[in-house]
Amino acid sequence: MLRLGRGRLTQGFVTVLCILGISWLALEYFVPSPPHRITIATGGKGTTFDYFGERYQERFALAGVELDLRETAGALENIRLLQDANSGVDIAFAIGGISDRTRAPKLSSTGLIYNVPFWVFYPSVESLDGLQQLKGKRIAVGPEGSGARYTAERILSKVNINSQTARLLPLAGDAAVNALIDGTVDAALIVGGSDAPAVEALLANPRVRLMDFSTAEAFTRIFPDLVRLTLPKGVIQIDPPNPPNDVSLVGTTAKVLIRDSVHPAIVQLLAATMKEEHGGPGLFQRSGEFPSSADPEFPVTQIAIDYYKNGPSLLAKYLPFSMTTNAQRIIAFLVATLAVILPVFSFAPRLYEWFVQERLRKLYRRLRVIENAVHADLTVPQVEALQRELAGIERATSAVAMRHSELYFLLRYHLDRTRSRLIEANQDAKVT
Question: Which DSSP string corresponds to 4-61?
C-alpha cells in the first residue's frame, strides 16, 4: 500500500509538472515575456539626447530592464538605425522635420517630449544680430547624419550660408563648447534643451553670447515644423540679468520613436519614464504640457496614449514592473483559456448525450432482431440462444448512463415485452 501510495504521489507530481511546463510554454508562445535588455539610440556626448538617455537608463534599471545607450551622430542616424532590422536598436530620440511615417513605415511614436530650441552661440566680444553675419565664419553645426546638422543647413540655407560660403564643422555637444571657448570656431549652432550640459555651460559662460533670432516668426512660416520660442530676460540669472534681454529663438519638438515590434510592456515602461522625466515645467514648456500624443509625423502608440490619459494600470500601481508583466501575461492566458474552454464545456454535454443515445440505438437494433425472430417457429435451442442475446442486451442497457432519457425507458419497455414473448415461444417449442 505504501509503495502504491508513493507511486501515485510521484505520478501526480510528474503530471502537475508537465501541465505547468506545457502551460508555461504556451504562455511564452502566445504572450511572450518582455526582454530584459533593450537598446536606445541617443546622440553625441554632452547633447540633450545623451543626457536623457542616461536618465532613462537609470529609470529602466529600477524596473529591472537594462537599457543600453547607443552613441550616434544624432536624429538622422537614429532613424536609420531604427529602420535597420540588424542594428539592434529598438528605441531612439528624434526631432521634428526630418522624417515621417511615409518615409519610415515601420516606426511609431511614443509622443513628443519637449520643445527643442536652436541656439546660436558666439564670442561676447563680437556683436551679431543676424544669421547672415555668419558668412565666411567657422560654424560648429554637428556631424554629418545628425539632426542638428540637418536643421542647421536648412536654416542657414535661407541666408545663403552653406559649405561654400562658410566653414561648417562637424562638432556638437562638449566638442562644440570646447571649440567655441578655445576660439577654434566662431559660432556654434546647438540643437538641444536648456538642461543639456553643453547648453547650460554656454548660457552660464560670460565669454559667450546667445544670438537673437529677430526673424524667428518668418522661419516658422517658411518651415511649418518649427515653433517660435522666447527666452525671458533674467531667466538664467536675475542679477545681473542673464540674458540681459528677451531672446527670440526658433525650435522644433523632440520625440521618442520605436519600432512597431517593441514589446507592449516595454512601451508602457517607456511611457512611464517619459512622463516622469518630461512632465514638469521648463523654460519653454508648462507643467503637464509634455509628453504629448500630438505628433503630426508619426502615429502615437495606443499604449502611450492610454498611459498619458489614464496613468498606470491598477496592477502597475501596486506591483513592481516584473511582477506586473507576469500578472498581465497570466491574466491574458487565463482569459484566452476560458474563451476556449467555456464553449467546449457547453458543447460537451450535448456531445456526451449524443454518444449515449447512439449507444442505446445500437442496443435497440439488436433487440429488433430478436423481436423479428420471435414471430417465426422456433426450436428450444433457438429460443435459448435468443434469451442469451436478450440477457446480453439487458446487461449492456444497465451499464448505459442517462437512464432518465426517453429512449432508455422505451428500450426497457421493449426488453420486457420481448422477454415475455420469448417465454411464450419457449413453452410452445417444448409442447411441440
Answer: HHHHHHHHHHHHHHHHHHHHHHHHHHHSPPPPSEEEEE--STTSHHHHHHHHHHHHHH
CA distance 293 to 378: 93
List Cβ neighbours of 163 (8 Å cut-off, separation of 6 or more): none
pTM reported for the whole predicted model: 0.66
**Residues facing 120 on adjacent strands:** 189
Write the CATH number of the domain with boundaries 37-312.
3.40.190.10
The pairing of strands 187-191 and 91-95 is unpaired
* Separation of alpha carbons 432 and 427, rounded Å: 9
Q: Which three cell numbers stand for residue 166?
A: 562658410
- 41 vs 400, higher pLDDT: 41
Alpha-carbon separation of residue 12 from 4, 8, 24, 106 (angstroms):
12, 6, 18, 48
d(CA 82, CA 180): 33
The answer for 261, left when phi > 0, alpha when psi is -120 to 50, beta otherwise, is: alpha
DSSP type of residue 134: G
Q: Is residue 189 within 8 Å of 120, Cβ to Cβ?
A: yes
User: Distances from the Cα of 29 to the Cαs of 22, 243, 337, in angstroms?
Assistant: 11, 58, 14
Q: Evaluate if residue 217 carries a pLDDT over 70.
A: yes
